[in-house]
Amino acid sequence: MKKILLFGMYENAMYHPLTGIDRYLKSLVSDKELDVTDQIEKICEAEQYDAVISYWDDWNEPIPEKAANALYRYVENGGSLLALHNGISIQLQDRLKKLVGGKFITHPEQETLTFVVKKNEMTNGCKDFSMKEEPYQFELEDDGKEIILTYLYREKEYPAGWRKYFGKGKVVYLAPGHTIHSFFNPEYTLLIRKSLEWLI
Question: What is the pLDDT of residue 114?
């Protein structure tokens, strides 16, 4: 059975605790073993897993050097990382900003946004969807990433998701996920499922 590690925060999360997201992802990958942790040191065991999911939510302090190095090496050597919404907060470590492929810089107030899925073999069968979300905006690394999701805001198109190779490994980032309700959108659920299939 494939194994996935989900790491995030419960009591100390700044905005987005793992509560609820843990149950959602367990049901999404019911055919796989999902280990959930709020102990950042667990990342040092990443090599035991087929994929790692970041839902980390600390925008003030970078994750410890040892854990950052372990995650970096894990993906570089052939592992897979899926970062969801606030999971990009690992960007506070420069090497992890390069790993995930970008840096969150701001978001205007949330509103109903239409997300457009860019078609490729991974997103085949996924449809565009609309929901109330934060218009996350990024400073992207120039690393050959493929944009797989966008949204239109004030007549400008913004990236909302991408996939990329990193060393021998793979990375997917998806921006929606401000509340648990976002994850119950069936089209977004399918996109997350397809992303995990590509990663694993």
Answer: 97
For residue range 132-187, what is the model confidence (pLDDT) as tens digits? 999 999 999 999 999 999 999 999 999 999 999 999 999 999 999 999 999 999 99
Element (H, E) at 170: strand 169-174
Long-range CB contacts (< 8 A, 24+ apart) of 21-28?
Answer: 21/55, 21/84, 21/177, 21/180, 21/183, 24/180, 24/183, 24/184, 25/53, 28/189, 28/192, 28/193, 28/196
The per-residue pLDDT for range 42-66, each reduced to its tens digit, is 999 999 999 999 999 999 999 999 9
pTM of the model: 0.98
Other residues' Cβ atoms within 10 Å of the Cβ of residue 197: 9
98's enclosing H/E stretch is helix 94-100
**Per CATH, is 3-101+161-199 categorized as 3.40.50.880?**
yes
Joined together, the tokens standing for residue 37 give 């942790």
* Domain residue ranges in the chain: 3-101+161-199
Q: How does 58-86 read in b/e, with b if 16+ C-beta sit within 10 Å?
A: beeebbeeebbebbbbbbeeebbbbbbbb
Q: Give the position of tokens 């907060």.
A: 89
